[in-house]
Specification:
The structure is a homodimer.
Chain A lengths: L1 H15 L6 H8 L3 H13 L3 E3 L6 E3 L1 H13 L1 H17 L2 E8 L2 E8 L14 E3 L4 H7 L4 H7 L15 H14 L2 E4 L6 E10 L4 E10 L9 H17 L4 E2 L2
Chain A binds a DNA duplex through helix 3.
DNA sequence: CAACATGTTGTATATTATGCAACATTCAAA
DNA sequence: TTTGAATGTTGCATAATATACAACATGTTG
């Protein structure tokens, strides 16, 4: 069904270009005439999946997308199952707790639970983080073989901070350490001043990985160090891995 | 673009039938053969908007839907603008704070902020509530004229609890009271034992309504009564209505 | 086991998505 | 302001594709 495939490509383009699409832009990327791109986007908007800004004429995500995503979360039991334990973990550590799944060389954030403190480092669900720099990403990569990881990264990973690992070999060494340690660490590799640790789970039936992480600003652990947070995360991991039953905790 | 219109209908059907679609079901509702429905859903799954359960063969929402919805929230500034103040309101009242927009005779929940207490009455964003029974729904209906409301409800509103208003006349009397009071009340009309109050805002430019509500179990106000929550909500409303500037606080 | 649903795939045909062109707007530079 | 280019939309003939029908494999139910 080719016209639907094109619609999917347009939606992917929307996500990748930051949430706004213009007709001309779409026509160029999907190699169709402006006229047909116009008709395509208009149809998507007619259904409510997109909506067109009456002023700028740009297309954005519509309300239907929120409704579909809600049914995703309802079906993806894991998110709801994990919610309470994530809230407990956020309470214990006083920091933001994340849940993410792999998406190519990125991590798709499915849920965030903010800690009790007013200022928290977090994004809304649906955002994607670069896997090589995020703790969740490295925890998920650690579930794969080195060979698979090399195949995934065609180019060298992008540098985001001075701490980011920018070569695949360097990344693989870090991931080997992650496997030994049992948890992944991102020390300011994604954002300056922010550390995060993460454990990865694997659902053998769906052959899908899930990661849970805790992120925290450096200054918050000046006195206590990382250990209390690591302990809390590992305790969470043991409880979560067994409680879910058919979801196996791998690391 | 007819095939895209059909895809939109299928997605709408997915949402309305609770998050799972079967090929046969789709073919019947959209009046197409099973073969073509199979091809349609397979295309949507190829793009990641849906995914097919390998065991049951049923189609569910896919990861792309979460990504699109995220870009919706990013663009719909209001949700992000409101987040901090909603968190403050949840802290003050110690109850769940909701943000919703109208969707026919229902309210689409765009955001929930849970109160600090462990057990909270809340749903995930994307769910829809019946407008005639939810406080947010009545706050939003109060922005419309009685004539518009009558046109919206073709049949009598559905009964959900013993308190639900099940005739349009009864509902209109309640909404008239809402307009006078400045806020809407749902006293166990949606769920037994749960009250909620709500105020509605209107964005004159987008000609779109937005409601904020606080929900709380009856037992939690045995000593204090509703007034503290009402005061907090109205203070929020003044702040929110003026702070946004171009969004007018209507009630 | 039989009768029945269900999901998928192949093929000829008829519907439809496409390319091209024209038009109205918008925007930037002259 | 004027000119020129870029943008979004619509109409139309044609080529591409979505469709109906059928057959098949695989559960499901009586």
């Amino acid at each position: 069904m080719k016209s639907i495939d094109k619609a999917m490509s347009a939606l992917r383009l929307l996500v990748d270009s930051g949430g706004e699409l213009r007709v001309g832009e779409t026509s160029r990327h999907l190699k169709m005439t402006r006229g047909n791109a116009s008709r395509l986007l208009a149809s998507l908007a007619r259904g409510g999946l997109l909506e067109q800004d009456p002023v700028t004429q740009r297309y954005r995500a519509g309300i239907l997308s929120v409704e579909i995503a809600a049914s995703f979360h309802r079906n993806f039991d894991l998110v709801e199952e994990a919610r309470k334990e994530m809230e407990e973990l956020a309470r214990q550590t006083e920091h933001t707790v994340w849940l993410g799944v792999p998406s190519g060389t990125e991590v798709l954030v499915l849920k965030t639970v903010r800690g009790p403190q007013p200022i928290q480092f977090a994004v809304e669900p649906g955002h994607r983080l670069p896997a090589h720099a995020a703790a969740m990403g490295k925890a998920l990569l650690a579930l794969k073989s080195d060979q698979e990881i090399r195949a995934l990264f065609s180019a060298d990973p992008e540098s985001l901070t001075t701490q980011t690992k920018t070569s695949i070999d360097e990344l693989l060494r870090d991931i080997a350490m992650t496997r030994m340690r049992g948890y992944a660490v991102s020390n300011q590799e994604l954002f300056e001043g922010v550390k995060a640790i993460s454990v990865g789970f694997e659902d053998p039936q769906k052959s899908m990985g899930v990661a849970i992480s805790v992120s925290y600003p450096l200054f918050s652990i000046e006195k206590t160090g990382d250990q209390p947070i690591i302990d809390a995360l590992l305790m969470f991991a043991r409880s979560f891995g067994t409680r879910i039953g058919d979801k196996r905790w791998v690391l």
